[in-house]
Amino acid sequence: MAKSGKTAASYRCAECGWQTAKWVGRCGECQAWGTVEEAGARSAPKAVAAGPVSAPALPIGEISVEAAATRPSGMDELDRVLGGGLVPGAVLLLAGEPGVGKSTLLLEMAAIRADQVPVLYVTGEESTAQVRLRAERVGALAPKLFLAAETDLAAVLGHVETVAPDLLIVDSVQTIASGEATGSPGGVTQVREVSANLIRVAKERGMTTVLVGHVTKDGSIAGPRVLEHLVDVVLHFEGERHSRLRMIRAVKNRYGPTDEVGCFDLSDSGLASLPDPSGLFLTHRAEPVSGTCVTVTLEGRRPLIAEVQALVLDVPKEVPPRRTTSGLDTSRVPLVLAALQKHGNVPVGGKDIYAGTVGGVRLTEPSVDLAVALAVTGSRAGVPLAPGTIAMGEVGLAGEIRRVQGVRRRLSEAARLGFRHAIVPTHSVPADSLAPGSGIPEGMTVSEVGDLRSAIAAAFG
Known about the structure:
- The protein is an alpha/beta fold.
- It folds into three domains: about 10-40; about 70-275, Rossmann fold; about 280-460, Ribosomal Protein S5, domain 2.
- The protein is built from ten helices and 21 strands.
- The protein has helices at about 75-80, 100-115, 130-140, 155-165, 190-205, 225-230, 335-345, 370-380, 405-415, 450-460; strands spanning about 10-15, 20, 35-40, 90-95, 120-125, 145-150, 165-170, 210-215, 235-240, 245-255, 260-265, 270-275, 290-300, 300-315, 325, 350-355, 390, 395, 400, 420-425, 445-450.
- The strands form five sheets. The protein has a nine-stranded mixed sheet with strand order 6-5-7-8-4-9-10-11-12, sandwiched between helices. Strands 13-14-16-15 form a four-stranded mixed sheet. Strands 2-1-3 form a three-stranded antiparallel sheet, with no helix packed on it.
- A hairpin with a 2-residue loop joins β13 and β14.
- α7 crosses α8.
- Residues about 1-5 and about 430-440 have low confidence and may be disordered.
């Protein structure tokens, strides 16, 4: 006789959500010990009858868009990434490494918005006194900015009912726990329960909500993947610990683009929008020096001028050569050096080679390859590039220079900062626009090169 009703109880890992029919001491997915918990009995799906609707369905042309109109956050670079500003009822997830400045960014934004509307900042990691001290340091004190230190979801929702904020910030979602869910704070079950309730309240009240999320060692957002699917916007805040530059980018955005990047300057007085960050990555010299080359990289749709430096040193034959990089892709630099020696006739074998960037910027785009090759060539020969020269292009293992995207946008940014000679891959600019004033910036000359030898000849003569 067939069984009906409930089946055997299932168990779920509190860290990654992996399920099994019986209890085990170690998760079969993430290999964590002691995280498998009973998830309750599974029952067969039941038919659901039609019920009352919350609002009648309307033709799409009759639906008002006023409820989804953006409101400026007060930080231009953040608005650029969000697609105009904050949307009422939207839920944002901001993730980043510890100490990168997430709390400082949100505290400053909260103070700016609190000049007009009530803002509630809930901290689960610090005391209110600690947050107040940081607010004084960055000048983020506002009369309508309310601060609470809570780790219980019911208490957070109680503060929402009392303050009735227009903007809610929860720092962080992994520290909030619900009494209705099992598991420890930060676990899969708790994060799912807390985020679902906060999203429900945000939609009901038309309240913009920002959730701060932790990241794992590999840089991904900690917690269940479903959290990223539930929220409307997922933002990553990143930057080198020893650099002033901070970047924010959207990896998911239901209200705007995902290829924009916002730049901020981090100082003792807080974060400041940085509409023109290129100056942070250039060295201003009275005389040109060998071993340097300027390139233009694209961060989203924004072109950034950056300088690549290289140093080539002779070493004794019995000592193995060193290859050290900083701010560059460690897997691509050796490929460029191999192609440079084989196809560019630049003897770099048996040499110590150090390559890096200026200002702490990290360049991983393949378009930086040509700048690395020319910087190494200049250092090896002791010859500097002509002032006002930039180079961009991907170097192939056969010695060819491959095309890159957005060449015109890169050239326009370089011309704006005073560069007058550009070395680019062949066919990057249409033939009828090579003449000044016909597609390239006025006053700039462009040298199209197809291989490393041509690039070296165009750069050094």
